Amino acid sequence: MQTTPLRIGTRGSQLALAQAHEVRARLMAAHSLPEEAFEIVPIVTSGDRIQDRPLADIGGKGLFTQEIEEGLLSGSLDVAVHSSKDMPTVLPEGLDLTAFLPREDTRDAFIGRAAPSIEALPPGSKVGSSSLRRQALILRMRPDLSVVPFRGNVQSRMRKLDEGQVDGTILANAGLRRLGMTEVITDLMPSETFPPAPGQGAICVESRIGDPRIDALLQPIHHRETGLALACERAFLAALDGSCRTPIAGHAVVEGEKFHFKGLIITPDGRISHDIAIDGPAADAAVLGAKAGAAVREKAGTTFFESWN
Ligand SMILES: NCc1[nH]cc(CCC(=O)O)c1CC(=O)O
User: Fold this and answer.
1) Closest ligand 1 atom to the C-alpha of 197?
2) Which residue among 103, 131, 179, 200 is best mutated to probe the pocket of ligand 1, counting the most ligand atoms within 8 A of its Cβ?
3) Whose C-alpha in 7, 98, 124, 236 is 20 to 30 A from the C-alpha of 138?
4) What is the rounded CA–CA span in Å between residue 220 and residue 99?
5) What is the pTM (predicted TM-score) of this model?
6) Tens of pLDDT along 214-230?
7) Could you tell me which residues come within 8 angstroms of residue 89 by beta carbon, excluding any fewer than 6 positions away?
8) Distance CA 219, CA 44 (A)
9) Domain enclosing residue 126, as ranges
10) Tens digit of pLDDT for each residue in 94-131?
11) Residue 106 Cα, ligand 1 centroid: separation in angstroms?
12) Is 69 inside a domain boundary?
């Protein structure tokens, strides 16, 4: 057994720390190791420092992982824990998502003040969300609502709701569950009408490719079905977008040797959408995810992507 603790890199938010603690707990249980065998290392990323502009404008998802990935590559970290939803489809050379924990619920949750659900909001109400996918899906349901930018951690968002800055907001059920905050939820959005982002609800572990010691450590905590579902969803995303400027939903469910996937792209105003559903053998999840992405791209045509970018 190693003598120095295994260093687990993570962002410093409460949600990120909860995720890192969950990975540590699973590693401790899988290897009968004490807590001291692991060190959780919180890292402030560029994305955490820049709070006032939309993600897509400041350089996209990579800003939330850059400093952590530098730590993996330099050897100052052994593994990194992330929300899969936040991970770019292209990772730095030498790194990969090497383990996925069993997935949490993938649905979005509505937290309403003026009303308990999107449907019941008074005309013209304000919903806070900086997610293009959530904005588009909200406007598809209720074109009369206004969606306003809303960033920050869960606690600061709750304060803005209490202050009446917005009438409601949407957060991932998975994150609220991990924070023990599900009591704030006033409605759960059905996946059929409000499909989740690719990766939503899945915690992943990133590590150096070809590090047998780390691979052996992670192998027992890896959840096969979640890994295959994520391979499909990430391939779908990669085939459609790298910019974070296209609202994209995608959700794969793997059951034994079979899987099912539903994907959607939608204009930010919610008016035009193109969707796809596919079934297939679980082993083909990644290939079929890429195929689904190409098929949706074809259906939409280039004008779809040019209509607002
Ligand atoms: N971009 C922030 C982010 N990344 C992952 C989650 C939720 C947890 C998850 O999907 O696993 C959240 C917050 C949210 O969307 O409410």
Assistant:
1) 10
2) 200
3) 236
4) 9
5) 0.94
6) 999 999 999 999 999 99
7) 234, 237, 238, 242
8) 28
9) 108-188
10) 999 999 999 999 999 999 998 999 999 999 999 999 99
11) 10
12) yes
